[in-house]
Specification:
By secondary structure, this protein is mostly helical. Helices cover 71% and strands 0% of the residues.
C-alpha cells in the first residue's frame, strides 16, 4: 500500500510539473503574439494574463518579469539563426550554393516562427540597450559575419562581383525575407494580397533569383539558379 501511495504521489507531482510547463508555453505564445503585434514596451503583463485567463499575480508564478517572458520567446530563435548561418557558411560548397541555401533555410525558419523573428527585428533598439539581451546582439552579429563570409567567398571565387557592399546587401536580404515570411503567413485573400497563390518553394526561388541577379558577376548574370543543398 505504501509503495502504491508513493507511486500515486509521484504521478501527481509529474502531472503538476507538466501542467506548469504547459502553462508556461501558453503564456509565452500569448506574449509572443502581443509583443509581435503591439510591441514589447507597449504590452502589459495584465494584457498577457488576460489572454490566458489568469490573474496578473498568478503569471508571476511562472515568470519573474516581462523581460523574462521576452527572453523565453526570442532566445531559441536568435541562437538557431546564428547556428543555421554558421553551419551553412561552413559547408563544403561554392558560395552561390551556400547563399541560396541561406536564403531557403532563413525564409523557412522565419515563416515557421514569424512572431519570434518579428520581435527580434522590430525590437532591435531595445535589445541593443539592454545588457540582459547581449547574447542576442552577439548572436545576430555572428550570423551576419557568417553571411558576409559567404559573400566574400563568392567574390574570391569569381562568382560574385567585387563591388558588393556586404552590410547593405545582407540587411536588404534580411528585410526582404522578413517581409516575405510575414506576407506568406498573414495574407488575407484581398486582391492586393495574393500570397495564397505561392508556395514557400516558389517564394524561395523568386528571392534567390532576385538576390543572385544583384550579386553575380556580370559574366554569370544569366546562368541558371541551382537549388539549395540539404544542410541539416
Amino acid at each position: 500500500m505504501a509503495a502504491r501511495a508513493g507511486a500515486d504521489t509521484a504521478r501527481q507531482a509529474r502531472g503538476r510539473r507538466g501542467a506548469q510547463v504547459d502553462r508556461r508555453e501558453v503564456i509565452l505564445e500569448a506574449a509572443a503574439r502581443r509583443f509581435a503585434e503591439y510591441g514589447f514596451e507597449a504590452t502589459t503583463v495584465r494584457q498577457i494574463a488576460d489572454e490566458v485567463n489568469i490573474l496578473s499575480g498568478s503569471l508571476y508564478h511562472h515568470f519573474a518579469t516581462k523581460e523574462e517572458m521576452l527572453d523565453g520567446v526570442v532566445r531559441d530563435a536568435a541562437l538557431d539563426q546564428r547556428q543555421r548561418a554558421q553551419r551553412i557558411s561552413g559547408l563544403d560548397a561554392d558560395a552561390e550554393t551556400k547563399l541560396v541555401t541561406l536564403i531557403a533555410e532563413e525564409l523557412a525558419a522565419l515563416a515557421e516562427r514569424i512572431e519570434a523573428y518579428a520581435i527580434i527585428f522590430n525590437e532591435r533598439k531595445f535589445f541593443r540597450r539592454s545588457p540582459d539581451f547581449a547574447y542576442l546582439i552577439n548572436a545576430r552579429k555572428e550570423a551576419f559575419e557568417a553571411w558576409r563570409a559567404v559573400l566574400e567567398q563568392g567574390v574570391r571565387e569569381g562568382l560574385f562581383h567585387a563591388g558588393i557592399d556586404s552590410y547593405l546587401t545582407i540587411s536588404t536580404i534580411m528585410r526582404m525575407l522578413n517581409s516575405g515570411a510575414d506576407w506568406y503567413r498573414h495574407e488575407d485573400g484581398s486582391p492586393l494580397d495574393a500570397m495564397a497563390e505561392y508556395s514557400l518553394e516558389a517564394l524561395t526561388e523568386f528571392y534567390a533569383g532576385f538576390v543572385l541577379r544583384s550579386v553575380r558577376s556580370a559574366a554569370r548574370a544569366d546562368e541558371p539558379i541551382l537549388p539549395a543543398v540539404l544542410s541539416r
